[in-house]
Amino acid sequence: MATLLATIGTLAAVTVLTRLRRGEVIALRAAGVPGRTQARSRLLETLVLGAGALPVGLAVGLVVAVVTMPTLVRLSVVGLADYASPLRLDAPALAAGLVLAALGTLLAAVGSARRVRVQHADTEHREETR
Questions:
Q1: Contact 25/118 with Cβ under 8 angstroms?
Q2: Which domain holds residue 123?
Q3: Count of structural domains within the chain
Q4: Alpha helix locations (H) across the chain?
Q5: Closest Cα partner for 109 from 32, 33, 22, 51?
Q6: What is the rounded distance in angstroms from the CA atom of residue 68 to the CA atom of residue 42?
Q7: What is the pLDDT of residues 74-98, one digit of tens each?
Q8: 107 sits in which H/E element
């Protein structure tokens, strides 16, 4: 569930940033940068940021789990007040989450690149009338 929410958040953020950066596409078009080059650049930018965010998210998630989960389990499950079992990693679930997160990032990157190509081809848009 958390991976799904993170993927939706990533898609929303990339969509908003693509719209906000439309002026950049227009300026680069005016400077002679082809739409294909701009789209490839935005694709790589999103993939690199996603590749950096995944390990950071894993590390922060691990720290939060180690700090909060034992207490939450003891306080919320009747009869486990003295329970002190260490956390265990569910490798298949982690792998599935990572695959889904990577696919979500790839989907966001491809969508952003496509939108940049469309923005580049739109010669009717006037940034100053926004």
A1: no
A2: 2-81+90-129
A3: 1
A4: 2-20, 22-30, 35-76, 91-121
A5: 51
A6: 37
A7: 788 777 666 666 778 889 999 999 9
A8: helix 91-121
Mark residue 85 as left, alpha or beta (left: phi above 0; alpha: psi -120 to 50; beta: remaining): beta
Here the tokens at position 125 are 């848009």
Q: How far apart are CA 40 and CA 109, in angstroms?
A: 9
**pTM of the shown model:** 0.80
CA distance 52 to 45: 11
The total number of residues shown for the chain amounts to: 130
Tokens 């940049």 label which residue?
116
Q: Which amino acid appears at position 112 of this protein? A: S
Cβ atoms 30, 128 nearer than 8 A: no
